[in-house]
Predict the structure of Nucleotide-binding universal stress protein, UspA family.
Amino acid sequence: MSGVVLVGVDGSQTARRAAESAKRLATALAAELRVVTAFESDRVEIVESGADKWVLSDADAAEKVARTIAGELASEQLQTSYGAVRGKAGEALVKEAERVDAQLIVVGNRRMQGLGRILGSVANTVAHNAPCDVYIAKTDEPA
């Protein structure tokens, strides 16, 4: 297949389970695994301590989450990349899939039952708007 398998992470255990499923799929398909984290605001905070000054942003924090997970999933058989995308999680995944011409988006099934199913979830948003195939991984229970 080659191409790109895209997965969104937020640091939660369920997102980690989706990322593990994405890794298995990307490896089997000889595809690149792209790990992304969404962020909704452009908030920037400047922290100063003596002569030192740090600029912290939501984008940087989101990218750090994606970078960490991508690094943990990397292997000799798998090319990984990562990034941060502005927007609500589902919309950000769709936008990134369009940008990188992804062949597959992997999402978890968290909040696909009960009230979350009616009000919407990341998986629901992605499934209805994705420009490519969507794989919904069972993430509500440990494997």
In short: The chain has five helices and seven strands.
